Every structure is written in C-alpha cells, then in structure tokens.
Amino acid sequence: MPVTELFEQAPVIDDARLQMSGAGRLRHLLTLKGLKRSMLTELLDQSEAFLSPLGNVPVRSRSLAGKTVANLFFEPSTRTRASFDLAAKRLGADVLNLDVNMSSRKKGESILDMIYTLQAMQVDIFVVRDASAGVPAYIARHVLDHVSILNAGESDVSHPTQGLLDLLTIRQCKQSFEKLIVVVVGDIAHSRVARSLASGLATMGVGELRLVSPKSLAPDPADFPRARILHKLDDGIRGADVVMALRIQRERIGNLDGIPGIDEYFANFGISHERMKLAAPDAIVMHPGPMNRGIEIESSLADSPSSMITRQVTNGLAVRMAILAAVSRTVDTR
Amino acid sequence: MPVTELFEQAPVIDDARLQMSGAGRLRHLLTLKGLKRSMLTELLDQSEAFLSPLGNVPVRSRSLAGKTVANLFFEPSTRTRASFDLAAKRLGADVLNLDVNMSSRKKGESILDMIYTLQAMQVDIFVVRDASAGVPAYIARHVLDHVSILNAGESDVSHPTQGLLDLLTIRQCKQSFEKLIVVVVGDIAHSRVARSLASGLATMGVGELRLVSPKSLAPDPADFPRARILHKLDDGIRGADVVMALRIQRERIGNLDGIPGIDEYFANFGISHERMKLAAPDAIVMHPGPMNRGIEIESSLADSPSSMITRQVTNGLAVRMAILAAVSRTVDTR
Amino acid sequence: MPVTELFEQAPVIDDARLQMSGAGRLRHLLTLKGLKRSMLTELLDQSEAFLSPLGNVPVRSRSLAGKTVANLFFEPSTRTRASFDLAAKRLGADVLNLDVNMSSRKKGESILDMIYTLQAMQVDIFVVRDASAGVPAYIARHVLDHVSILNAGESDVSHPTQGLLDLLTIRQCKQSFEKLIVVVVGDIAHSRVARSLASGLATMGVGELRLVSPKSLAPDPADFPRARILHKLDDGIRGADVVMALRIQRERIGNLDGIPGIDEYFANFGISHERMKLAAPDAIVMHPGPMNRGIEIESSLADSPSSMITRQVTNGLAVRMAILAAVSRTVDTR
C-alpha cells in the first residue's frame, strides 16, 4: 500500500484523541487541535518554569535521566532539531540524532520497522519530522504503550511545538488573548505554522485572527474556520496587536500569479517599519524563522525592540522541555 | 601497497589469536572463530544482565565512565550504529560518531592515520564497520596496548556482535543447542551474518545447520565446514527449530540465474506461514534486519508470535553493552 | 551586501583587541596576533594540566557543566571537530554538532541569524570553522556579552588552536624558543597553520623562522614579517631544530609552475630521513595532519622517534580544553 494511503486513513479528530492517555493526560503531541484551554495553559505555565535570563545558566533537571529520546528527521532541519536535542540533554536524557534520507521509503512499513527497531532499543520518545501528512499519528497508532511521539513538523498540516511557543510569546507580551488582533502574513496555504497557531489561538479565545496572503497562496477557508482571509496587507495589519510574517519559499516567488518577483513580494506582503505604523502602537512582530530578510520582513524591523523573533527561539526550547517532561511523566506510571 | 594486499596478508586464524589478551581474556572482538564455548557462554550470560523488560528503565552503569568510544563507520548504518551508540552511552562513555566517506582511501595508511589521530585523543575503543575484508584486524594489529577494536560488520566475512545476539536469542527460546536444527535462508554467499552465526553455532555444538540459497548465491562449502548446503526451501525448513531469513539486496534479484524476479524469489525462498508448517511446531523466525517484507519474509509472519525479530534488536544492544564492558575490563589492568 | 565586504571591513588589529575582555582576559580566540607572551605561556601551562599519559584515564572536569558548546563547521572537518567535541565533553559541557552546508549563504546575515538563533537557545561558546576570511571576528562583533567565539580554522588566515598546539609541542621538546631554528615547508601561501604558528613563534621570541615553498606557493612577505622565505629545502633544513611539513592539496600538484608531479614534489619539498641529516641531530618533525605520506613527508619518517605528529594531536585536545576553560572563566563573571 502506498504510504499516502496508509497515513491518511484516519480523520484528524482521531489525532486529537490519540494523543491523550486514558487518564486524560498528554501522551503524544501530534496536534494542538482538541487540546483544552486548561491543558494549553498548564503547558505554557510549565514552559515558563524552564526559562532563565539569557546569559544565566540554563534551567536543567534530571527528570529524563535514564530515558532515551530519538530525533528522527526525515526532512532536514537545523533549528528545530537543535532545539529538541538541547531540550532533551538539559533534562538528562540520552539522545540519538538520526537524519534519515529514506530512499527506500516506498511504504509506511519501512518507517514502522525503523520505529520498531529503535523501540526495541528502549527509545522512550520519538521526535518526528516528515514531509508527508499523517506520519506522526501513523507511528503513534503502532508504538508500545510506554512510548511517546512528538510531532516536530508534519507536511503543511501541523507543527504543534511551534504553535505553543508562539502562544507563549504572545502571552508573555500581551497577557490576555480575548481582545487581541493577530495577523499572519505570507504563504498561508502551505504553512503548518499558521495552522497550529490558528488552532491554539482559537482554543485560547483570541479576539480576531487575520490571514493575509497573495491570492495564489490563500488557504482553504475550511482549514481556518474562524479566521478572516485577506489579500491586502494594509487591511490585515490595521490595528493588529501581533504581526507574524511567514517564510516564503524563494522558488514560489515569480512562479505564481500576483508574485512577480522579490521586490513586488516585499512591496505587497513584506512587514516593514512603515507598515507597522498601521498596527497598534505596542504591536509585536514575530517570525518562525529562518527569515528571508528583505523579502517577507524588513531587516531592521527584525532586529528592532518590537521584534520577538529571538525570544520565540528561547521560548521554543522551554516549550520542548515542558513537553518532554509532560509526556515523560504520563508514561512514568509504567 | 593497495589496501586489499595490506589487509589480507594474515590468515584468519591470526584474528582469533589477535583478539585475546596475554591473560586469555577478550581484548578485541574481531570474529567469533576461535572463541571457546565457555567464553561465548560467559558473554551471553553477561548480556542477559543488561536486559530489562521493554518499558522499564534500561539497565545502566558507569563502568565506562571516563572512557571514549569512537564509532567509525566507513559503510553507512543506522541500526548497528544506533545500537553501539546507546550501548556506550548507557555505560557512561563519551561517544564520538564518525561517518567516514573516505574517498581518498586508496591506501590502508589513511585508515591507520585516522586511527592514530583518534587514539592520540585518548579514544579507548573503536567500533569499526567497513566494506573491505581484513580492516578490523589490520587496525587491531597497529593500535596501542590499551586500545580495543570491535568489529561492527566486515565485508561478507564477519559480524560477530550479530552472531552473538543471534545465539542469545536462540538460547533464550531453546535452552540447549545440541539437538537444534537451525536453517538460514537467502544470499548465503555474501552474508557476514550467516558466517558469524555458523561459527558461533558450531562452537555451541548445534545439532544441525542448514543453509538454503539459490544456486547462484550458494557459498563456498569451505566457508561452512559443518553445514548442509541446500537449494530447496522445503528441504531446509522441514523439522527446523530456528528459521532465519537473510536480507536480499534488491539489485541482485533479476540479475542472477534462478532469481528472475521478486515474486519468484518469494515463491522459492520466502519464509511464510505456509512454509513454516513444515518446521517444528514451536519453531522461531529470525531476521537480522532491515527486512524486505514480502520478499524474503511474509509480512504478517514477521509480526507473529513466532517472530523474534524485535527481540533480536533488544538482545543486540545488551550484547554490545556486554562486549564493551568485557574489553574495557581487560584493558583496565593498565 | 556580499559576505566578503561585510566580513573584511575591519583590519586585523581589531581582531586582536576584540578577543580580549575589558579586564584584559581572553574572551574569544580569533587569532594569536596581539596575545602577549605571558598570556601564551599561561595558556600553554594550562594545557599541560589537561595532559595525562596515553592509556590513562583522560583528565576530566565539570568546569563547563551547564554550558553549551556549538561546533559550527561551515567547512568539513573530522579531526578538529572531534578534538573540540571531546574537549567540551571532557569538561562536562553539552555539545551541539552542526555541519552546515549553507547553500543560501549569499549574505553574512544568514550566518548571523543562525548564531542569533543558537544564542537564543543559550549556547555559550561557538566553535567556528569557515572558508571565508573574517567570519569568526564578524560573529564575535555581534554576539551577546556572555558568548565566546573560538576560531577553528579561518580561510588561509588563521588557525589559532593549531598554532597553540604547535607551540606546546615545540616547548615540550625544546624548552626555550630563543635559540631555535624552525622551518615550515610546503604550500605557505595558502596555509593558515603557517600564519598562526609564525605569529605565536614571533611572540615567544623564536630564534629564526624559515619558510620553504615552491615559488608558485610562496607567501606575501608582508604576511610573515620576520621570516626568511626560501625555495630550496636544503637551505631551509640546514641546522633546523624543528621541521614542519604542511599538507599539499593534491589538486595543486601538476597545475603549478615548478610542481610538475608528485614525485618531483617529494624530491624537491618532501621531508625525508635523508633530508633530516642536514638538520640538528635532535631535530623534531611535525605535521598538522592529515598527511599525504610519500608526498610532503616520507612515510617511515612520520612514524620515527623524531616525529611529534601524534603528540601534536594529543596536545591539540589539551589546548582546546584549556581554551574552553579559559573563555568560560572569563564569562563566568556574569
């Protein structure tokens, strides 16, 4: 059976249930969908406990001592993998880094056999990134009871730790979500970052979510049920409290209607100091990284006091420590 | 001098002697040949001590604390390298993972210079995998007295930790070797797995070893002095207690007389539920991995209760911990 | 702005100042230029403290416990990276190994964004190797106050830890520098090793430094103000106390005037037993590695008692531990 058929059998609602233990605790992290506000709040609170001022010794613990974490990246990544790697090490885990270029991956069975093999080596937690939709949940449905799967980026579907770190960053700057206007700008159609953030914001009761993209990169409205989909940046940014620019794949520029080139993309969809004058006076700027400076964001804006971009990275590590600790506690009942 | 000449100067009997310390203890692990039954039994007993039920915290110790293990893989590997990596970490060693694509490896000197360099960094144990015969012994003949070499796969000649984990798996299921019928099926000619298993089984006094392969993949009988070489699977499997399928390189299929295609290979040499009816009622199924499901083994058979395939992986990690601890004790007299 | 313009704005004298903290301690290690003799002596003394006899348990400490070291290699390396990796691990640091093939590195901004990202993950020390001149200093000018940059090889400009390990090796064998004749042979024009050694030797007050190369690989004399530049090996080696051969890139051989082929290169510029008869009777032989045996050095000479080549490797690890500990102490005032 081809891998796509295998992976896409189950509807997404199952992922939300699948990630919870019988006792209602988080066992896997596959998606932010279905996680209650109380659980998101608890995870954000736990993440705060793993933060220390830059320049101080990082927060460390031995709560994963004796556990083994495997970073299984079927899609290359420097940043997210480094973040998970350090998160696991600072909790005392043994870490196995596997960059798998699975050429023979014609079938889901090859992935499962690799998982079964590593599981038999007593790997406790798998951090999985894959370009195909459905892979993390597919794996989660097949592992032993004491094993946890963390989704580190799944096609254009989901990137839940990114969603959590974005929520944490917004909460740190803005306290309450309910009156907030959040705008995400760029290639919404292909963005797992936008999808996970939208999920989390909806659960937290955000005031308004606006999505701004070129028409050719607009999402299916069904994917973003409560969002306003716009195509003019000025309309989106006006009065916004949080402005997030998404990375645009350079190969998409110039190959799409309405995106004739880099300069035009920046002129129409780039976040700039000038553009930010339309936003709320204390609006913050975010970007999931890595940035294309001068394309989706003005370079000096990315380094300005309103930019939370490096804070997002710091929060990301704290969120990943919190998630590792949370799923590890759940399976500790073994 | 070309590398092949350098490496193949010494007969295999030397490898057996070379791996023992003056006091008769194991210093390197190059081959199972020449290891006495009492030593194999001791290593299997020590491996058992490193096993814990899946889901429990893995057995750990600090017996390699302060030691450095270098995984030197001149041939790519995910599974075996992960197994040695975790084995060393769970014993408290510092681990250096080096995937070396030695393009300039025209001469054995390049390998030795790399070994001398790492040895000068106080690496204590080298885990070596190489596609050329003779490399582990060649290295072992040149290192300092306190350094150990572990063969992690040597051309089609030897894979001693695989042989040990296979022996351990058989011993766990079958207690005694002496009345046992073991059959290995597949590309025997090119299999280091079959050679190391045959060595170990001969030492343990196995009842009967049968090797089943297409004629074009039959081994030199001199390599397997006590085995029966067969070409019909039914003849091999009848009454067998242990049935091991070997991985077949897909590129060999269809390019050899008598192996016209995948379906024909499976029909003639694939291990299936149907075929297993000819074996002993409590026969076990093994495979060194990674499997080609549906080619050398029926997929559902690999996941059935008679399959010991994931247990082999678990045993592999325990065997590697036992070997690391054993050679480390030997050199501790320094 | 293209990367070369960005990186080469500042003169080298700035690097020397840039690497010192306000209190006159070493904060980064970018170059040996500008480091006083007392500081070099202190670093060499500290390196000695990290040496133990081969075969003994290596010297270890917890002085970097809780710190994170990132090995950021934009140019491939096995030896230097392994050396920094083990140095950091033996001091108790968490280590992140990143081999970055930065295809999109059209601008210095991409490097900086990667540094900012890792800095936001609380990386304390960056070990950087890059093929472009100016990268380590460029990074050092942009990091936070508590972060240190260690140059692990910078274009053909600088390789300060190599320079220190060479000084340490010479000091161990020769005690005093002031009457010493040191000769370096090979591709001086492209050698960061020769430049860092020349800097260090000048500071230590070496008697005489001679540089021998084919005319087409002669350096700009301005780069080596106190050295004698020669083109006949016999002239260079006569009476020398220390003879260092440099690695020659094979692709340079046969493509340059005066280097028609390997045999001619060895005949004219190879260090051999025969040639060493012209040197002082107790002269030592050095090579930064990896060697081309039979090209720049006679193979049996590299393995002879006068060769300090593996000792250089051992010293390299000790020097890197001393540097990591030194910059770590400096930033501990935070």
Q: Portion of residues in helices of chain A?
A: 25-40%
Strand content of chain A: 5-15%
Rg of chain A (CA only): 20 Å
Please give the CATH class of the largest domain in chain A: Alpha Beta
Q: Which regions of chain A are unreliable across 5 or more consecutive residues at pLDDT < 50?
A: 1-6
Largest interface: A-B, 24 and 26 residues
CATH superfamily of the largest domain in chain A: Aspartate/ornithine carbamoyltransferase
Overall mean confidence score, pLDDT of chain A: 91
Largest pleated sheet of chain A: 5 strands, parallel
Element pattern of chain A in H and E = HHHEHEHEHEHEHEEHEHHEHH
Give the termini distance of chain A in whole angstroms.
34 Å
Query: What is the total tally of β strands of chain A?
Result: 9
What's the domain count of chain A? 2
Strand order of the largest sheet of chain A: 7-6-5-8-9
The CATH topology assignment of the largest domain in chain A is Rossmann fold
Specify the CATH architecture of the largest domain in chain A: 3-Layer(aba) Sandwich
Number of DSSP helical runs of chain A: 13
Overall body shape of chain A = globular
> What multimeric state do the chains show?
homotrimer
Structural class of chain A: alpha/beta
